[in-house]
Structures are given as C-alpha cells and as structure tokens.
Amino acid sequence: MYAKVYGATVDGLDGVIVTVEVDISQGLPVFDIVGLPNQAVKESRERVRAAIKNSGFEFPMRRIVVNLGPAEVRKSSSGLDLPIAIGVLAASGQIKMRKRKLMSLLQSTLFIGELSLDGGLKKTQGILSMAMKALDENLVTVFTSSENIALLHYIDTIASYGARTLEDIVQVLIKPDSYTVEDISTNREDKTYSSIDYKDVHGQELGKRAMIIVATGLHHVMMTGPPGAGKTMLAERLPTILPDMSWDERFETTRIHDVAGLLEKNILISRRPFRGPHHTATLASIIGGGSNAKPGEITLAHNGVLFIDEAPEFPRFILDALRQPLESHTITVNRLQNSYEYPAKFICVLAANPCPCGYYGDPHKECVCSSTEFMKYQNKISGPILDRIDLYISVERPSFNDMLLTNEDSLSSSDMKDLVERGRNIQLERFKDCTFKTNGSMPHRAIRELCNIQDDCWNLLSDVYERFHFTGRSFDRLLKVSRTIADMDGSLYVEKKHISEAMLYRHTPFHVSRIGDHDGTTV
What we know:
Layout: E1 2-11, E2 14-25, E3 30-34, H1 39-42, H2 44-54, E4 63-69, H3 81-91, H4 99-107, E5 109-111, E6 114-115, E7 121-122, H5 127-136, E8 141-145, H6 149-152, E9 159-163, H7 166-174, H8 205-217, E10 221-224, H9 231-236, H10 247-259, E11 274-275, H11 283-287, H12 297-300, E12 305-308, H13 316-320, H14 323-328, E13 330-334, E14 339-343, E15 347-352, H15 371-378, H16 383-387, E16 391-394, H17 400-404, H18 413-430, H19 444-450, H20 458-468, H21 472-489, H22 496-504, E17 507-508, E18 521-522
Parallel strand pairs: 3-4, 5-8, 8-9, 10-15, 10-16, 11-12, 12-15
Antiparallel strand pairs: 1-2, 2-4, 6-7, 13-14, 17-18
Helix pairs in contact: 2-3, 8-18, 18-21, 21-22
GO biological process, one term: proteolysis
Pfam family, one: Mg_chelatase
Domain AAA+ ATPase: 217-399
C-alpha cells in the first residue's frame, strides 16, 4: 500500500516542498524515515505513532518506510509530523474516501504541523515561507494547526484550514463542510504602542536633528560620548520616527521573524524592528548561519534599526562583517551544501565611549587610560567601517538646565516623524522610476544626476575633498547627506548651507592621536 502526501520545510528563509512517500508492506513491524532527515524529523516516528493511536486510529503493525524528497535537501522541520501521519493513514486505508478522490485531493494539498502525543497540533515556525512556496508549486490548499491559521489568512490566494487535532484534520478531509471558520480577522493590528518617545530625551538637540536626517535619508550614524550622556536613548527611539511600514515590508519582516521563531503574535508585525545585540554575540548570531542557516541580527533588523552599543567592545572581525550589508543591504552566508542571501536593509547605529574609561576629553573628569589602551580601544573599529558611516555626532552630557526641562519643552517623536515623512515623500517622488527610494541607497552613478547640486557649490566641495582627504565613498556619503538636508528644507537644489551642515556630521574622534594638537579626524 502506497500514498504520497506533500509537506514542507524551511531552507534558509525559503520554503521547500517535501514529497512524503509512505509505503506499507508485509514484514516485521518497523518504521523507517529516509531522505536526509535531521534529528527532529527522525524523532517524529514516536510522535506520529502515539498521535495516531491516541486519535482513535490504528497504527499498522507492518513494515513502514517513509521517504522524504528531494533527498539532497536536509529536512529540519517538525512540521513534517502531520504529512507523515496523513500518509500512514491514507496508505493503510483509514481515511474513508474513494481512493481516486483521496489521491486527487492529496495532490493539491499541503500539510504542515507538529504533533503532540495525544494527537494535538502545535504551532510550526516558517509557516509563511512554506505557504508562499506552496503557491509556486500549485498547491492551493493548506492544512495546519489552528495556531498557524491566522497568519495564513493574510494570503488571499490560498485556501487554509486550521485544526487542533489530527482527528479534526481527517474529518475535514472527509467532509469539508464540517470545517467551522474561527473568528480570525486578517485586518488585526498590534495595538500595543511604544511607550518611548523623544520627549524623554532632555537637551541633545544636535542629536535629535541628526536622527531626523538619519531617518529621512536612511543613513548610518555613529555616536560618541561619555557614559550616561543619552546615546542609548537616542538610538532606541529611532524606530518611533521612521515612516510606517508598507504591507510588503510588514509581510517580509513577519516572514523573517517567523522563520527565526521570534514571532510572538499571529499577526503581521507593524512596528519596525529594533535589534541591539550584546557585544558577546557570536559571528553566526550577527550575520546568520549555524547548522540550520538561520537569519542573524542584521536580517532580523531588516526594515528597522540595528544598534551596536559599546561598538569597540565587539571583536573587530564581527564589526568588519558588517561591510557588505552596509553597502548592498544583503548578506551572503556560505555553507558547505548551499549559499544563502538574506535581506539586510537596516539603519546601523554605532555607539561608543571615546576611550575605555569613557572620560577622554571630558572637562570635569580626568581620563585614566594610557595611550596604549586608548589606541587599542579606538582601533577596534576599522577604517573601512568608519568610511561606511554617513554621520558622526558627539553626545555631550546634558546640563542641569536641560534636565529641568519638562516633556512639553522637548521635541516629540510625533513632531520629528512629521519632518521625516515630509522629506521621505520628496525622495519617493524623485526616485519613483528607480529601484532605490531613499538618498542613502543611491548608487554612485546616480548621485551626480539626481542630487541637483548648485553650480556654485563645486568649488566648496573641491576644497573640502582636498583638505580632508576624502575617499570616494565618504565623498559620496557627504553628498547624500547634503541632499537629505536639502529635502528636509524643501529645497530643489543642494546649496552651500546644506553642505556645510553635512560637514558638521563628518567629524569623528576615532583614530586620532593623543599626542600633540589635534581636533579629530574628518573622514
């Protein structure tokens, strides 16, 4: 007796349709699963056996062989429990339908679900990726757990059925009219609003201005300053002033978090992600990888913000791994069996103290670091990484008068978001025929054509380029920031005042000498 059922697994961020073939023949009772299953799939033998028995069906005491194809893809999803169980029941004739009708139904249906020992169905990670792959393979119906069904209802072009037990799935297969639709609204929104606001940040007007520029043009920023000055507060409030996510951005972000197992609610993510990995994080956890090639922090920050606090405390090779995604907005993870390309379009915010003790240059506290410690600390951030940062800001300790200000006296996130959206709308109109939509994403060849720099600015730019020894990349970033500032002013052209303000954000205290006179290095 033979049956063929379709299940699915996840490879990277993409779903993979798995053909589950079940053969039941005479012989000593044995239950084998072949086709490169991982340990979780191998253990499904015991879950499937117990679930079938406890659901009121008979587990065949014969020789059972389950083949999972394609054989070259490692199967790593516990969601294959349900298709294996359905295959066993179909091959043993326990699904009471005409064989031809049953085979026809199984050929257009995808089964996804992890089974508990009592026959209950559990939530499965990566359901959105699997369902999207099912559409590509002309599988128009999905049977899964009731915990997954809310997400599938966002995909209008696929019929989805959710159940709580294996027995319910079999009943719906036999009598589709018996399925009762749960009260699930595809328009549900996450009503939990952020409790943080830029009103809570006292003083730091320069920092807030820089954050508006960052959010408007999708630029990267680095903040330096003594401990407790407000660097973290400025960074963690950045998502509150970013434009609302489009439906496509919400769906993509939700799909990524679903694969990573970080989706807390069965609704689309509506708030832009904010990821702040600790400096003890491994390379694989930052860029992605591991045995299952899971997405890392830079992919989890896609469409949002990646905050690298205490950046010099990170190993240098981890920071250098950010070079590719900061430029291309993607990250390529190579493994022995495959190569994966993950999206990584995020705003990178670096924060650092000026030295190990944190008080170099402080007018009130003396720095106790030696020159060797100082240089070793600052060299943790390489020149190529600094060259990819658009803005540098110095965050000073707020004054006593700043601390006395009430929230009403401070610029709110709502006010800042209005300014950001005004500048972003100008960019959307300018780049309507382009693949990129923000100033920060402009490629080199488009800068001269689309920035609209006034003719009288080129002498100033020439002086700046020669005096501060810009690289080609840093010069491009200066022009991009200048264009963003002009957009915020509603100016059609980039003027000298916009370039002058952009130059204020090109000063970094990193990679300087402590000996002799210096005013920092301009990159």
